Amino acid sequence: MILVLDFGGQYNQLIARRVRENHVYCEVHPHTMSLDRIREMAPKGIILTGGPNSVYQADSASCSPELFRLGIPVLGICYGSQLMAYLLGGRVETAPTSEYGKTEVTLRSGRSKLFAGVDTKTICWMSHTDYIAAAPDGFQITADTPVCPVAAMENEAENLYAVQFHPEVMHTVQGKVMLKNFVYAICGCAGDWKMDSFVRRTICELREKIGNGRALCALSGGVDSSVAAVLLSKAIGSQLTCVFVDHGLLRKDEGDQVEAVFGPNGPYDVHFVRVNAKDRFYQKLAGVTDPEQKRKIIGEEFIRVFEEEAKKIGAVDYLVQGTIYPDVIESGLGKSAVIKSHHNVGGLPDYVDFKEIVEPLRLLFKDEVRTAGRELGIPDYLVNRQPFPGPGLGIRIIGEVTEEKVRIVQEADAIYREEVAKAGVEGLGQYFAALTNMRSVGVMGDGRTYDYAIALRAVMTSDFMTAESAQLPWEVLQKTTSRIVNEVRGVNRVLYDCTGKPPATIEFE
Ligand code: XMP
After folding, report:
1. Boundaries of each GMPS ATP-PPase domain copy (predicted)?
2. Which of 18, 201, 209, 485 has the smallest number of CB atoms closer than 10 Å to its CB?
């Protein structure tokens, strides 16, 4: 096991993820963890993360210098490297010039275990205002840059390593090699950890924590809440109640698919409650055209329905949420302008009587959640599902939402997804049909039509913060168009959205 001690840097969970990619188990803990606890955990290696402080400030995050004498290999990254230098007698100062971004680093020694297989000149990601001006006694400087005299240093005999740059981010071109060297060559990890170990361990921990208690899960049918629900069901079976609110704004057949998996005829021993609440939602949305108002109505109504169901169940001990790591980071930022008020089934705690929130996936990234889902035997169509917004089709229908418009967009979207799947198009982050609020003149048979235009959207993105419009094969677009205008009543025109994000957003509202 590798222990990551968190000094408040932005990329801490990314470090953990990189370690896990090497099939080595990894946990992130606060930098305040006691030495006794660390000895008890007996990690094979320790990584000190970056952080926002300056090591020489009185109240800066620190650790005991004894940490470096436990006989456990340590890798300090950025702030962690400066802390190692500072606590062991080196000198840390404000750098004359800050280094941010991709920087060429020159390796000085050809024999560092950390840099085995790394080029002498290698591009690394820097982000620092302080730097190590002088390495502590016993340390050898193993890399530098024109600005940074100690871009990396090590004391091989004591198994202490430090890098000023961030090997965990992808812009450090050979960062993965360095971390692999650390966990295997330096820490001697076996590399036999797999996601099934996470799954088994989490189930045991949940079982121990919840005991005979009762848990409630708001199930959306999306990947995250489905994986969380299955983990819980394996841990506590029928002590778990899953409430699935069908707001009538789901994709075609989605409600039934979720019920097939989690309902009484599915493989899991959970108490499943499906609330068919579409009429309530349609009534509330009648006549409303403003996107933010629609979002708020859907979000609030969702909570109300959930609350009513939760009350029927009575007090529960635990509320289960499918929060994953990117949600944690995004909610931590919280300072940017509100572009859209995102609604997530996660945001319910104020309304439900419970003791504690359980978030078994909060340290995982999306692809890791999918891997865990496969380990748990969740069907592929659920595990591989593309992201679907909480307000559902409500924000893919421009203008007023009506039952008829929901039918149109559901059918068009189902055709589009079928054709994309059939053509085996890969690399799409998200793709869907939206119903514009525009009607136009067409001709069908010998008659005039005046019908809606469907907009197709497909984007490539890795983080959903920015996105490029995908260049779908023309044949796929043509086939989809022809099927939609022929099979979906009320549509006579299909448009393709070529806009990126920014300036557009991925969803239409
Ligand atoms: P936008 O439209 O903001 O979407 O570019 C970025 C990503 O977020 C999803 N999205 C939501 N997800 N609740 C969610 O859980 C929401 O209210 C919501 N709005 C947008 C969107 O599908 C895309 O993946």
Report:
1. 193-385
2. 201
Catalytic position from the list 26, 78, 187, 217: 78
ipTM of the complex: 0.99
Distance CA 424, CA 439 (A): 32
331 contact partners, CB below 8 Å, separation of at least 6: none
- Do 2-186 and 402-496 come out as alike in CATH topology? no
Catalytic residue list contains 78:
yes
- Which atom of ligand 1 is the closest one to the Cα of 344? 15
CATH number of 402-496: 3.30.300.10
CATH no. of 195-383: 3.40.50.620
pLDDT tens digit sequence for 366-424 = 889 999 999 999 988 889 889 899 899 999 999 999 999 999 999 999 999 999 999 99
pLDDT tens digits, residue range 133-172?
999 999 999 999 999 999 999 999 999 999 999 999 988 9
The C-alpha atoms of residue 486 and residue 467 are separated, in whole angstroms, by 31
What pTM was computed for the model?
0.77
